[in-house]
């Protein structure tokens, strides 16, 4: 950035642990002990004791029998959904689910159905289209990554039970943010034991890279032996694995970290609404500031950077052309004063560009 100092409101590091010395030390220790990489898949020479330990801790954390770690979060969804349902089965998705879910269902032989975003009536209509005897898997983001709103998990669980379906929840943006000890949106809504598969990433609150799927013993064992993105990918590096595990330990030991995240989040939500920004239905540290014009979205991003505020533009194909926005995201390490500076800088830009009054 050519020495230009900015306030970072574009990161997914909600817990603010990417620069934590304990996480860095864990990564360095693993590098010294195991080397820079495993040079093989988990099926061959790529499984270390720290991979196994992290899987055990994640399974316990998410109230599941077992967990399986992957090299990236994208490969979890793409791989799991490609094999978990058969030709006579159904995958039912929210139409704003993450691209990795979209790609996973495209790779599947199952019939894929979509329901309108968070529209429970439409979800029920899609479930009614399914053959009663077939496997029906509902797949949904717990927190939607661009809009910041939450899936209506209590109602989804009710419909799941009514139609004898299964449920997989992507906790990429919920882990470390919602629920007891940051378990995620499933725990936040009190339905964690009603969710069959929980997916999460290491690249956000866990300050690393990678991902996991947690579920019952039989399903995880099936995925271990059939999921191509697991079988044919090199295992995650020792440093990345150790960093994620240490970040998980810190999140569980330091509830005040999540408490501060919510202090700045609630402040930001309040201030953006007071200043007249259109922020939709967000209930999370992800705050969409709608621009609704592709060119202006790029311009706002550039002007904000020049003013010392780093935000991310969200444009097609990540959204419809009429729904473009800039994404303002909070971290536990932010202060109220920093948030206020960001709000004031963006207010000036949005007013000058006639986006708000």
Short description:
By secondary structure, the chain is of the alpha/beta class. Helices cover 42% and strands 15% of the residues.
Describe this structure in words.
- The chain has 357 residues and is of the alpha/beta class.
- The protein folds into two domains: 21-253, Type I PLP-dependent aspartate aminotransferase-like (Major domain) (Aspartate Aminotransferase, domain 2); 255-352, Aspartate Aminotransferase, domain 1.
- The chain is 42% helix and 15% strand.
- It is built from 13 helices and twelve strands.
- The protein has helices at residues 21-34, 49-61, 73-83, 99-107, 120-129, 153-162, 185-188, 217-226, 228-231, 238-253, 255-274, 294-306, 336-352; strands at 7-8, 66-70, 90-94, 111-115, 136-141, 166-170, 197-201, 211-215, 286-290, 309-310, 312-314, 325-329.
- The strands form three sheets. A seven-stranded mixed sheet has the order 2-8-7-6-5-3-4, with helices on both faces. Strands 9-12-11 form a three-stranded antiparallel sheet, with helices on one face.
- Strand 5 (136-141), helix 6 (153-162) and strand 6 (166-170) form a beta-alpha-beta unit.
- The longest helix has 20 residues, at 255-274.
């Amino acid at each position: 950035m050519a020495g230009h100092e900015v306030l970072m409101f574009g990161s997914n590091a909600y817990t603010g642990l990417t620069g934590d010395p304990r996480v860095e030390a864990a990564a360095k220790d693993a590098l010294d002990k195991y080397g820079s990489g495993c040079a093989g898949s988990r099926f061959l020479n790529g499984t270390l004791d720290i991979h196994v330990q992290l899987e055990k801790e994640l399974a316990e954390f998410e109230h599941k029998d077992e967990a399986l770690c992957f090299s990236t979060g994208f490969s979890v969804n793409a791989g799991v959904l490609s094999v978990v349902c058969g030709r006579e089965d159904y995958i039912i998705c929210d139409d704003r689910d993450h691209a990795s879910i979209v790609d996973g269902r495209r790779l599947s032989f199952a019939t894929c159905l979509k329901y309108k975003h968070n529209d429970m009536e439409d979800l029920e209509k899609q479930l009614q289209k399914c053959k009663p005897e077939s496997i029906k898997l509902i797949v949904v983001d717990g927190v939607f990554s661009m809009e910041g709103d939450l899936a209506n998990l209590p109602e989804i669980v009710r419909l799941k039970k009514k139609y004898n379906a299964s449920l997989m929840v992507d906790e990429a943006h919920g882990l470390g943010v919602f629920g007891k000890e940051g378990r995620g949106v499933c725990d936040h809504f009190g339905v964690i034991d009603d969710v069959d598969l929980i997916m999460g990433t290491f690249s956000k609150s866990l300050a690393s890279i990678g991902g996991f799927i947690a579920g019952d013993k039989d399903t995880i064992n099936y995925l271990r032996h059939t999921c191509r993105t697991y079988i044919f990918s090199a295992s995650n590096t020792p440093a990345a694995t150790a960093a994620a595990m240490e970040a998980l330990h810190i999140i569980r030991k330091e509830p005040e970290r999540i408490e501060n995240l919510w202090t700045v989040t609630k402040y930001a939500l309040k201030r953006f609404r007071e200043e007249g920004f259109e922020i939709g239905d967000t209930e999370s540290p992800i705050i969409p500031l709608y621009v609704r014009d592709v060119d202006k979205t790029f311009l706002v991003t550039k002007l904000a950077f020049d003013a010392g505020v780093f935000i991310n533009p969200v444009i097609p194909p990540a959204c419809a052309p009429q729904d473009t926005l800039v994404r303002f995201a909070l971290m536990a390490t932010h202060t109220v004063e920093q948030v206020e500076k960001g709000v004031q800088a963006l207010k000036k830009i949005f007013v000058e560009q006639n986006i708000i009054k």
